[in-house]
Amino acid sequence: MIDPSDMEIAAMQSCLTPLGEYVSFIGIQRPLADYSRDEVLGLIDVVITNYQERMLEEHERMAAKDRDFLEQSLVNRAAGRLQGSV
To answer: Which of 10, 39, 48, 70 could make an SS bond with 35 (beta carbons 3.0 to 4.6 A apart)?
Structure first.
């Protein structure tokens, strides 16, 4: 990944614990070249799943923040119009 954003870096870092747990489970002392096809696919699944989950959570958090800002802006605009008509 070229020039990852802070959000992408955080998502990558969130993969470390699950990845470590997976590698410990299948045998951390073994070289990667000795992993079976299914073990490599499992490793890929752990990393991609956790990365995507973290990115989704962050996007949802950002969308909620934007939604709250928009709703508050609309409330403020409506309140300003009501004060102007009184």
So the answer is: 39
Predicted structure pTM score: 0.76
Q: How would residue 78 be classed by pLDDT, with cut points 50, 70 and 90?
A: confident
DSSP string for 40-82 = HHHHHHHHHHHHHHHHHHHHHHHHHHHHHHHHHHHHHHHHHHH
pLDDT tens-digit series, residues 20-43: 999 999 998 999 999 999 999 999
Rounded CA-CA distance 61/55 in Å is 10
Domain enclosing residue 49, as ranges: 6-84
In a domain, 1, yes or no: no
Residues, the chain: 86
What is the number of structural domains in the chain? Answer: 1
